[in-house]
Amino acid sequence: MPITTVVFDAYGTLFDVTAAARTAAQSPEFPQLAPVWQALARDWRAKQLEYSWLRAVTGNHTPFWEVTQDGLDWAMEANGLQGEELRARLLALYWELDAYPEVPDLLQRLKAEGLTTAILSNGSPEMLEGAVSSASLEGLLDGVLSVESCGVFKPDAAVYDLVRDQLGTRADEVLFVSSNGWDVCSATAYGFQTLWVNRMGQPLDRLPEPPAAIEPDLSRIPDLLASGRFTRPDLHPEPQYFTASDGLKLAYRDEGDGPALLCLCGLTRNMADFDFVARDFADRARIIRLDTRGRGQSDHDPTYLNYNLGREGQDALDLLDHLGLDKAAILGTSRGGLIALTLAVTHKDRLTGVCLNDIGPEIDPEGLAFIFGYLGIEPTFQTYDEAADALVKTTAARFPGVPRARWRLHAERIWTQTDDGLRIRYDAKLRDAVIEQSATGDVQDLWPFFDAFADLPLALIRGEHSDILPAKTAAEMRRRRPDMIHAEVPRRGHVPFLDEPEARRALSQFIDRLS
Asked: DSSP assignment, residue 130?
Protein backbone atom coordinates (compact mmCIF):
# COMPACT_ATOMS: atom_id res chain seq x y z
CA MET A 1 0.00 0.00 0.00
CA PRO A 2 1.61 3.35 -1.03
CA ILE A 3 1.87 6.29 1.35
CA THR A 4 -0.86 8.88 0.75
CA THR A 5 -0.51 10.96 3.93
CA VAL A 6 2.45 12.36 5.85
CA VAL A 7 1.69 13.31 9.45
CA PHE A 8 4.14 15.27 11.58
CA ASP A 9 4.52 15.77 15.27
CA ALA A 10 4.83 19.50 15.85
CA TYR A 11 7.20 20.41 18.69
CA GLY A 12 10.80 19.36 18.05
CA THR A 13 9.84 17.98 14.64
CA LEU A 14 8.57 20.96 12.65
CA PHE A 15 9.13 23.65 15.28
CA ASP A 16 12.33 24.30 17.22
CA VAL A 17 11.42 24.03 20.91
CA THR A 18 14.70 25.66 21.92
CA ALA A 19 13.91 28.84 19.99
CA ALA A 20 12.04 30.59 22.83
CA ALA A 21 14.90 30.28 25.34
CA ARG A 22 17.53 31.09 22.71
CA THR A 23 15.74 34.24 21.55
CA ALA A 24 15.09 35.48 25.09
CA ALA A 25 18.75 34.90 26.01
CA GLN A 26 19.82 37.29 23.25
CA SER A 27 17.90 40.14 24.87
CA PRO A 28 19.87 42.51 27.14
CA GLU A 29 16.86 42.53 29.46
CA PHE A 30 17.65 39.03 30.68
CA PRO A 31 21.41 38.70 31.18
CA GLN A 32 20.85 35.96 33.78
CA LEU A 33 19.47 33.69 31.04
CA ALA A 34 22.44 33.81 28.68
CA PRO A 35 24.69 31.30 30.50
CA VAL A 36 21.90 28.77 31.19
CA TRP A 37 19.44 29.07 28.31
CA GLN A 38 20.40 25.69 26.81
CA ALA A 39 19.90 23.91 30.14
CA LEU A 40 16.61 25.74 30.62
CA ALA A 41 15.39 24.71 27.15
CA ARG A 42 16.38 21.08 27.79
CA ASP A 43 14.73 20.92 31.21
CA TRP A 44 11.62 22.72 30.02
CA ARG A 45 11.08 20.25 27.21
CA ALA A 46 11.82 17.23 29.42
CA LYS A 47 9.28 18.27 32.05
CA GLN A 48 6.72 19.20 29.42
CA LEU A 49 6.88 15.64 28.07
CA GLU A 50 7.08 14.00 31.49
CA TYR A 51 4.01 15.81 32.74
CA SER A 52 2.04 14.89 29.61
CA TRP A 53 2.89 11.19 30.07
CA LEU A 54 1.94 11.25 33.74
CA ARG A 55 -1.35 12.97 33.02
CA ALA A 56 -2.12 10.44 30.27
CA VAL A 57 -1.40 7.51 32.59
CA THR A 58 -3.36 8.92 35.52
CA GLY A 59 -6.29 10.18 33.43
CA ASN A 60 -5.74 13.72 34.72
CA HIS A 61 -5.84 15.60 31.44
CA THR A 62 -5.35 19.32 31.13
CA PRO A 63 -4.63 21.53 28.09
CA PHE A 64 -1.04 21.39 26.85
CA TRP A 65 -0.60 25.08 27.53
CA GLU A 66 -0.95 24.41 31.27
CA VAL A 67 1.56 21.55 31.00
CA THR A 68 3.91 23.89 29.15
CA GLN A 69 3.69 26.49 31.92
CA ASP A 70 4.22 23.89 34.63
CA GLY A 71 7.29 22.60 32.82
CA LEU A 72 8.73 26.09 32.52
CA ASP A 73 8.17 26.85 36.20
CA TRP A 74 10.08 23.70 37.17
CA ALA A 75 12.90 24.43 34.72
CA MET A 76 13.30 28.03 35.87
CA GLU A 77 13.55 26.98 39.51
CA ALA A 78 15.99 24.17 38.64
CA ASN A 79 18.26 26.66 36.87
CA GLY A 80 18.08 29.41 39.49
CA LEU A 81 15.94 31.77 37.41
CA GLN A 82 13.23 34.04 38.76
CA GLY A 83 11.00 36.86 37.61
CA GLU A 84 7.52 37.17 36.16
CA GLU A 85 8.83 39.33 33.31
CA LEU A 86 11.24 36.59 32.14
CA ARG A 87 8.56 33.93 32.54
CA ALA A 88 6.05 35.95 30.54
CA ARG A 89 8.57 36.60 27.77
CA LEU A 90 9.48 32.90 27.45
CA LEU A 91 5.84 31.88 27.29
CA ALA A 92 5.05 34.53 24.69
CA LEU A 93 7.93 33.34 22.52
CA TYR A 94 6.66 29.76 22.73
CA TRP A 95 3.69 30.86 20.59
CA GLU A 96 6.13 32.01 17.88
CA LEU A 97 8.58 29.12 17.61
CA ASP A 98 10.79 29.01 14.53
CA ALA A 99 10.23 26.24 12.03
CA TYR A 100 13.35 24.26 11.16
CA PRO A 101 14.97 25.60 7.96
CA GLU A 102 14.03 22.65 5.74
CA VAL A 103 10.33 22.61 6.72
CA PRO A 104 8.72 25.03 4.19
CA ASP A 105 10.48 23.49 1.20
CA LEU A 106 9.71 19.97 2.41
CA LEU A 107 5.99 20.66 2.76
CA GLN A 108 5.87 22.33 -0.63
CA ARG A 109 7.49 19.27 -2.25
CA LEU A 110 5.05 16.90 -0.54
CA LYS A 111 2.06 18.97 -1.63
CA ALA A 112 3.43 19.08 -5.19
CA GLU A 113 3.45 15.27 -5.15
CA GLY A 114 -0.25 15.24 -4.23
CA LEU A 115 0.28 13.96 -0.68
CA THR A 116 -1.91 14.91 2.26
CA THR A 117 0.05 16.66 5.00
CA ALA A 118 -0.97 17.19 8.61
CA ILE A 119 0.16 17.81 12.16
CA LEU A 120 -0.73 15.47 15.03
CA SER A 121 0.33 17.06 18.30
CA ASN A 122 -0.16 17.25 22.04
CA GLY A 123 -0.41 21.00 21.56
CA SER A 124 -3.72 22.75 22.10
CA PRO A 125 -5.47 24.07 18.97
CA GLU A 126 -4.63 27.68 19.86
CA MET A 127 -0.93 26.89 20.38
CA LEU A 128 -0.70 25.01 17.11
CA GLU A 129 -2.54 27.73 15.22
CA GLY A 130 -0.06 30.28 16.56
CA ALA A 131 2.98 28.18 15.61
CA VAL A 132 1.68 27.42 12.11
CA SER A 133 0.81 31.05 11.49
CA SER A 134 4.13 32.34 12.85
CA ALA A 135 6.03 30.00 10.50
CA SER A 136 3.73 30.85 7.52
CA LEU A 137 2.81 27.20 6.95
CA GLU A 138 -0.98 27.62 6.68
CA GLY A 139 -1.31 26.73 3.00
CA LEU A 140 1.00 23.74 3.26
CA LEU A 141 -1.02 21.63 5.72
CA ASP A 142 -4.30 19.82 5.13
CA GLY A 143 -4.98 19.28 8.80
CA VAL A 144 -3.81 20.32 12.26
CA LEU A 145 -4.93 17.66 14.74
CA SER A 146 -4.79 18.33 18.47
CA VAL A 147 -5.19 15.80 21.28
CA GLU A 148 -7.76 18.12 22.84
CA SER A 149 -10.42 16.50 20.65
CA CYS A 150 -9.86 13.15 22.40
CA GLY A 151 -8.79 14.40 25.85
CA VAL A 152 -5.59 12.42 26.35
CA PHE A 153 -1.92 12.91 25.46
CA LYS A 154 0.33 10.69 23.38
CA PRO A 155 1.12 7.85 23.24
CA ASP A 156 -2.47 6.78 23.91
CA ALA A 157 -3.86 5.02 20.83
CA ALA A 158 -6.84 7.38 20.85
CA VAL A 159 -4.48 10.13 19.68
CA TYR A 160 -3.32 8.13 16.64
CA ASP A 161 -6.98 7.27 15.93
CA LEU A 162 -7.48 10.96 15.12
CA VAL A 163 -5.65 10.50 11.82
CA ARG A 164 -8.17 7.87 10.73
CA ASP A 165 -11.18 9.66 12.13
CA GLN A 166 -10.40 13.19 10.92
CA LEU A 167 -8.39 12.55 7.75
CA GLY A 168 -10.13 9.33 6.67
CA THR A 169 -6.79 7.61 6.10
CA ARG A 170 -5.88 3.97 6.71
CA ALA A 171 -2.95 3.40 9.09
CA ASP A 172 -0.84 1.63 6.46
CA GLU A 173 -1.13 4.65 4.14
CA VAL A 174 0.39 7.02 6.73
CA LEU A 175 4.00 8.03 7.21
CA PHE A 176 4.26 9.43 10.74
CA VAL A 177 7.27 11.63 11.46
CA SER A 178 8.47 12.67 14.92
CA SER A 179 11.63 13.79 16.69
CA ASN A 180 10.61 11.78 19.76
CA GLY A 181 11.81 8.18 19.79
CA TRP A 182 9.00 7.06 22.09
CA ASP A 183 6.47 8.69 19.76
CA VAL A 184 7.64 6.89 16.61
CA CYS A 185 7.86 3.54 18.42
CA SER A 186 4.29 3.98 19.65
CA ALA A 187 3.12 5.05 16.19
CA THR A 188 4.85 2.02 14.63
CA ALA A 189 3.06 -0.22 17.09
CA TYR A 190 -0.20 1.48 16.12
CA GLY A 191 0.36 0.53 12.49
CA PHE A 192 1.83 3.64 10.85
CA GLN A 193 4.99 3.65 8.78
CA THR A 194 7.39 5.85 10.73
CA LEU A 195 10.47 8.01 10.48
CA TRP A 196 12.43 9.24 13.47
CA VAL A 197 14.02 12.67 13.04
CA ASN A 198 17.05 12.15 15.25
CA ARG A 199 18.38 15.71 15.24
CA MET A 200 20.55 15.20 18.32
CA GLY A 201 22.17 11.91 17.32
CA GLN A 202 20.64 10.04 20.27
CA PRO A 203 20.64 6.24 20.75
CA LEU A 204 17.56 4.33 19.65
CA ASP A 205 15.05 3.92 22.47
CA ARG A 206 14.88 0.41 23.94
CA LEU A 207 11.24 -0.03 23.00
CA PRO A 208 9.35 -2.52 20.82
CA GLU A 209 8.48 -1.60 17.22
CA PRO A 210 11.40 0.62 16.10
CA PRO A 211 10.91 3.17 13.30
CA ALA A 212 11.24 2.14 9.68
CA ALA A 213 13.79 4.89 9.03
CA ILE A 214 16.00 7.35 10.92
CA GLU A 215 17.18 10.66 9.48
CA PRO A 216 19.05 13.67 10.96
CA ASP A 217 16.48 16.11 9.53
CA LEU A 218 13.39 16.18 7.33
CA SER A 219 14.97 16.99 3.98
CA ARG A 220 15.18 13.46 2.52
CA ILE A 221 11.57 12.45 3.12
CA PRO A 222 10.41 13.04 -0.51
CA ASP A 223 13.33 11.00 -1.86
CA LEU A 224 12.62 8.17 0.58
CA LEU A 225 8.96 8.16 -0.40
CA ALA A 226 9.87 8.09 -4.09
CA SER A 227 12.16 5.10 -3.50
CA GLY A 228 9.29 3.06 -2.05
CA ARG A 229 11.01 2.88 1.33
CA PHE A 230 7.73 3.19 3.23
CA THR A 231 5.48 1.22 0.92
CA ARG A 232 3.83 -1.66 2.73
CA PRO A 233 5.17 -4.85 1.17
CA ASP A 234 2.90 -7.20 -0.70
CA LEU A 235 2.91 -10.10 1.75
CA HIS A 236 2.43 -12.74 -0.91
CA PRO A 237 3.64 -11.34 -4.25
CA GLU A 238 4.01 -13.49 -7.33
CA PRO A 239 7.33 -15.26 -6.68
CA GLN A 240 9.92 -16.85 -8.91
CA TYR A 241 9.86 -20.62 -9.28
CA PHE A 242 12.34 -23.42 -9.82
CA THR A 243 12.03 -27.19 -10.07
CA ALA A 244 13.57 -29.27 -7.31
CA SER A 245 15.61 -32.36 -8.17
CA ASP A 246 12.56 -34.61 -7.60
CA GLY A 247 10.35 -32.55 -9.91
CA LEU A 248 8.36 -30.45 -7.40
CA LYS A 249 7.88 -26.74 -8.25
CA LEU A 250 9.05 -24.49 -5.40
CA ALA A 251 8.69 -20.73 -4.89
CA TYR A 252 11.45 -18.31 -3.93
CA ARG A 253 12.43 -14.65 -4.00
CA ASP A 254 15.91 -13.27 -4.73
CA GLU A 255 16.64 -9.64 -3.80
CA GLY A 256 19.60 -7.42 -3.03
CA ASP A 257 23.34 -7.50 -3.50
CA GLY A 258 26.18 -8.81 -1.37
CA PRO A 259 26.94 -12.10 0.34
CA ALA A 260 24.20 -14.67 -0.28
CA LEU A 261 21.87 -15.24 2.69
CA LEU A 262 19.38 -18.08 2.21
CA CYS A 263 16.38 -17.63 4.50
CA LEU A 264 14.61 -20.86 5.54
CA CYS A 265 11.28 -20.55 7.34
CA GLY A 266 9.70 -22.38 10.26
CA LEU A 267 7.59 -25.53 10.21
CA THR A 268 4.30 -23.92 9.12
CA ARG A 269 5.58 -20.58 7.92
CA ASN A 270 6.60 -19.03 4.58
CA MET A 271 8.95 -16.51 3.04
CA ALA A 272 6.87 -13.54 4.27
CA ASP A 273 8.50 -14.11 7.66
CA PHE A 274 11.63 -12.51 6.22
CA ASP A 275 10.04 -9.34 4.83
CA PHE A 276 11.79 -7.25 7.49
CA VAL A 277 15.14 -8.89 6.75
CA ALA A 278 14.78 -8.07 3.05
CA ARG A 279 13.69 -4.53 3.91
CA ASP A 280 16.57 -3.87 6.28
CA PHE A 281 19.47 -5.73 4.69
CA ALA A 282 18.93 -6.10 0.92
CA ASP A 283 21.37 -3.21 0.45
CA ARG A 284 24.10 -5.26 2.17
CA ALA A 285 23.29 -8.88 1.32
CA ARG A 286 21.62 -10.98 -1.34
CA ILE A 287 18.45 -12.06 0.46
CA ILE A 288 17.14 -15.36 -0.96
CA ARG A 289 13.87 -16.59 0.55
CA LEU A 290 12.44 -20.07 0.00
CA ASP A 291 8.93 -21.33 0.52
CA THR A 292 9.78 -24.85 1.67
CA ARG A 293 7.84 -27.58 -0.13
CA GLY A 294 4.22 -27.66 0.96
CA ARG A 295 4.40 -24.14 2.38
CA GLY A 296 3.37 -20.76 1.07
CA GLN A 297 3.30 -20.68 -2.74
CA SER A 298 5.33 -23.86 -3.28
CA ASP A 299 3.64 -27.03 -4.52
CA HIS A 300 2.34 -29.56 -2.02
CA ASP A 301 4.16 -32.88 -2.15
CA PRO A 302 1.87 -35.81 -3.08
CA THR A 303 4.06 -38.00 -0.87
CA TYR A 304 3.71 -36.27 2.48
CA LEU A 305 6.58 -38.20 4.08
CA ASN A 306 8.87 -36.10 1.88
CA TYR A 307 8.25 -33.34 4.42
CA ASN A 308 11.46 -34.17 6.25
CA LEU A 309 14.71 -32.39 7.05
CA GLY A 310 16.77 -34.35 4.55
CA ARG A 311 14.50 -33.64 1.58
CA GLU A 312 14.00 -30.01 2.60
CA GLY A 313 17.75 -29.60 2.94
CA GLN A 314 18.14 -30.93 -0.59
CA ASP A 315 15.57 -28.38 -1.75
CA ALA A 316 17.77 -25.63 -0.33
CA LEU A 317 20.79 -27.00 -2.22
CA ASP A 318 18.70 -27.33 -5.39
CA LEU A 319 17.85 -23.65 -5.13
CA LEU A 320 21.50 -22.70 -4.78
CA ASP A 321 22.29 -24.82 -7.82
CA HIS A 322 19.45 -23.16 -9.73
CA LEU A 323 20.93 -19.75 -8.89
CA GLY A 324 24.47 -20.84 -9.76
CA LEU A 325 25.71 -20.40 -6.19
CA ASP A 326 28.38 -22.71 -4.83
CA LYS A 327 27.84 -21.46 -1.27
CA ALA A 328 25.53 -19.36 0.88
CA ALA A 329 24.90 -18.50 4.49
CA ILE A 330 21.65 -19.65 6.08
CA LEU A 331 19.26 -17.70 8.26
CA GLY A 332 17.12 -20.47 9.69
CA THR A 333 13.98 -19.82 11.71
CA SER A 334 12.99 -22.80 13.87
CA ARG A 335 12.72 -25.75 11.41
CA GLY A 336 14.84 -23.74 8.98
CA GLY A 337 17.57 -23.80 11.60
CA LEU A 338 17.22 -27.58 11.92
CA ILE A 339 17.76 -27.81 8.17
CA ALA A 340 20.94 -25.78 8.64
CA LEU A 341 22.09 -28.19 11.36
CA THR A 342 21.52 -31.09 8.97
CA LEU A 343 23.42 -29.41 6.14
CA ALA A 344 26.35 -28.68 8.44
CA VAL A 345 26.89 -32.45 8.67
CA THR A 346 26.04 -33.44 5.10
CA HIS A 347 27.10 -30.45 2.98
CA LYS A 348 29.17 -28.09 5.10
CA ASP A 349 31.16 -27.15 2.01
CA ARG A 350 28.06 -25.32 0.72
CA LEU A 351 27.77 -23.09 3.81
CA THR A 352 29.45 -19.75 4.50
CA GLY A 353 27.77 -19.18 7.87
CA VAL A 354 24.60 -19.86 9.87
CA CYS A 355 22.26 -17.64 11.90
CA LEU A 356 19.76 -19.58 14.01
CA ASN A 357 16.48 -17.88 14.93
CA ASP A 358 15.19 -19.40 18.19
CA ILE A 359 16.33 -22.96 17.59
CA GLY A 360 19.16 -25.17 18.80
CA PRO A 361 20.25 -28.78 19.39
CA GLU A 362 17.67 -29.31 22.15
CA ILE A 363 13.96 -28.52 21.91
CA ASP A 364 11.63 -27.94 24.85
CA PRO A 365 8.85 -30.59 24.84
CA GLU A 366 6.38 -27.99 26.10
CA GLY A 367 6.91 -25.93 22.97
CA LEU A 368 6.51 -28.98 20.76
CA ALA A 369 3.22 -29.79 22.47
CA PHE A 370 1.99 -26.27 21.76
CA ILE A 371 2.89 -26.63 18.07
CA PHE A 372 1.04 -29.96 17.83
CA GLY A 373 -1.99 -28.17 19.22
CA TYR A 374 -2.43 -26.24 15.97
CA LEU A 375 -0.32 -28.11 13.36
CA GLY A 376 -2.42 -29.00 10.32
CA ILE A 377 -5.63 -27.65 11.88
CA GLU A 378 -7.60 -24.92 10.13
CA PRO A 379 -8.20 -21.77 12.21
CA THR A 380 -11.69 -20.94 13.40
CA PHE A 381 -11.38 -17.23 12.62
CA GLN A 382 -13.49 -15.71 9.87
CA THR A 383 -11.41 -12.55 9.32
CA TYR A 384 -7.93 -11.18 9.93
CA ASP A 385 -9.36 -8.71 12.43
CA GLU A 386 -10.94 -11.53 14.42
CA ALA A 387 -7.64 -13.40 14.35
CA ALA A 388 -5.72 -10.33 15.52
CA ASP A 389 -8.04 -9.86 18.50
CA ALA A 390 -7.54 -13.49 19.49
CA LEU A 391 -3.76 -13.41 19.05
CA VAL A 392 -3.46 -10.41 21.36
CA LYS A 393 -5.04 -12.51 24.12
CA THR A 394 -3.43 -15.89 23.49
CA THR A 395 0.12 -14.57 23.07
CA ALA A 396 0.11 -12.10 25.98
CA ALA A 397 2.41 -14.20 28.18
CA ARG A 398 5.03 -14.99 25.55
CA PHE A 399 4.81 -11.73 23.57
CA PRO A 400 3.81 -9.08 26.15
CA GLY A 401 3.05 -5.66 24.74
CA VAL A 402 2.98 -6.63 21.07
CA PRO A 403 0.22 -4.46 19.60
CA ARG A 404 -2.84 -5.62 17.72
CA ALA A 405 -1.62 -4.07 14.45
CA ARG A 406 1.41 -6.36 14.48
CA TRP A 407 -0.73 -9.43 15.12
CA ARG A 408 -3.03 -8.52 12.25
CA LEU A 409 -0.03 -8.32 9.95
CA HIS A 410 1.14 -11.67 11.31
CA ALA A 411 -2.27 -13.21 10.62
CA GLU A 412 -2.07 -12.07 7.00
CA ARG A 413 1.30 -13.79 6.72
CA ILE A 414 0.32 -17.19 8.07
CA TRP A 415 -3.32 -17.53 6.91
CA THR A 416 -5.25 -16.74 3.74
CA GLN A 417 -8.72 -15.23 3.53
CA THR A 418 -11.41 -17.34 1.82
CA ASP A 419 -15.19 -17.15 1.58
CA ASP A 420 -15.30 -19.72 4.37
CA GLY A 421 -12.94 -17.85 6.70
CA LEU A 422 -9.20 -18.03 7.23
CA ARG A 423 -7.23 -21.04 6.03
CA ILE A 424 -3.66 -22.23 6.61
CA ARG A 425 -0.96 -21.46 4.02
CA TYR A 426 0.62 -24.93 4.10
CA ASP A 427 -0.23 -28.56 3.43
CA ALA A 428 -2.28 -29.99 6.31
CA LYS A 429 -0.57 -33.34 5.63
CA LEU A 430 2.49 -31.84 7.31
CA ARG A 431 0.88 -32.94 10.57
CA ASP A 432 0.78 -36.58 9.45
CA ALA A 433 4.41 -36.39 8.34
CA VAL A 434 5.63 -35.05 11.68
CA ILE A 435 3.55 -37.54 13.68
CA GLU A 436 4.77 -40.56 11.70
CA GLN A 437 8.40 -39.43 11.73
CA SER A 438 8.31 -39.01 15.52
CA ALA A 439 6.35 -42.21 16.22
CA THR A 440 9.40 -44.15 17.39
CA GLY A 441 9.99 -41.75 20.25
CA ASP A 442 13.74 -41.73 19.51
CA VAL A 443 15.36 -38.34 20.02
CA GLN A 444 18.51 -37.79 18.00
CA ASP A 445 21.45 -36.09 19.68
CA LEU A 446 21.91 -32.89 17.68
CA TRP A 447 24.92 -31.55 19.57
CA PRO A 448 27.36 -33.16 17.09
CA PHE A 449 25.40 -31.37 14.35
CA PHE A 450 25.88 -28.08 16.19
CA ASP A 451 29.58 -28.78 16.67
CA ALA A 452 29.81 -29.26 12.90
CA PHE A 453 29.36 -25.48 12.60
CA ALA A 454 33.00 -25.16 13.74
CA ASP A 455 34.92 -22.50 11.78
CA LEU A 456 31.73 -21.07 10.27
CA PRO A 457 30.45 -17.60 11.25
CA LEU A 458 27.62 -18.32 13.67
CA ALA A 459 24.83 -16.28 15.27
CA LEU A 460 21.92 -17.07 17.58
CA ILE A 461 18.77 -15.00 18.09
CA ARG A 462 16.54 -16.18 20.94
CA GLY A 463 13.24 -14.90 22.27
CA GLU A 464 13.31 -14.15 25.99
CA HIS A 465 10.14 -16.21 26.53
CA SER A 466 10.89 -18.97 24.03
CA ASP A 467 9.15 -22.28 24.72
CA ILE A 468 11.22 -24.06 22.03
CA LEU A 469 14.82 -23.08 22.78
CA PRO A 470 15.57 -23.50 26.51
CA ALA A 471 17.79 -20.86 28.10
CA LYS A 472 20.17 -23.58 29.32
CA THR A 473 20.56 -24.85 25.76
CA ALA A 474 21.37 -21.36 24.51
CA ALA A 475 23.93 -21.02 27.30
CA GLU A 476 25.59 -24.29 26.30
CA MET A 477 25.67 -23.17 22.67
CA ARG A 478 27.47 -20.02 23.76
CA ARG A 479 29.89 -22.02 25.89
CA ARG A 480 30.79 -24.24 22.95
CA ARG A 481 31.07 -21.28 20.58
CA PRO A 482 32.28 -18.24 22.55
CA ASP A 483 32.65 -16.35 19.27
CA MET A 484 28.99 -16.84 18.38
CA ILE A 485 27.00 -13.63 17.92
CA HIS A 486 24.14 -13.76 20.41
CA ALA A 487 20.97 -11.73 20.88
CA GLU A 488 18.31 -12.26 23.53
CA VAL A 489 15.19 -10.46 22.32
CA PRO A 490 13.06 -9.18 25.22
CA ARG A 491 9.28 -9.59 25.25
CA ARG A 492 9.39 -12.23 22.53
CA GLY A 493 8.61 -15.93 22.54
CA HIS A 494 8.97 -18.39 19.69
CA VAL A 495 9.87 -16.81 17.31
CA PRO A 496 11.17 -13.22 17.22
CA PHE A 497 9.90 -11.20 14.25
CA LEU A 498 13.48 -10.20 13.27
CA ASP A 499 12.78 -6.46 13.17
CA GLU A 500 13.51 -5.96 16.88
CA PRO A 501 16.60 -3.80 17.61
CA GLU A 502 18.41 -6.75 19.21
CA ALA A 503 17.70 -9.03 16.25
CA ARG A 504 18.67 -6.36 13.74
CA ARG A 505 21.98 -5.73 15.49
CA ALA A 506 22.78 -9.45 15.52
CA LEU A 507 21.93 -9.81 11.83
CA SER A 508 24.02 -6.75 11.00
CA GLN A 509 27.03 -8.20 12.82
CA PHE A 510 26.49 -11.57 11.15
CA ILE A 511 26.39 -10.05 7.66
CA ASP A 512 29.55 -8.10 8.47
CA ARG A 513 31.30 -11.40 9.22
CA LEU A 514 30.08 -12.88 5.95
CA SER A 515 31.53 -9.89 4.11
From this structure: H
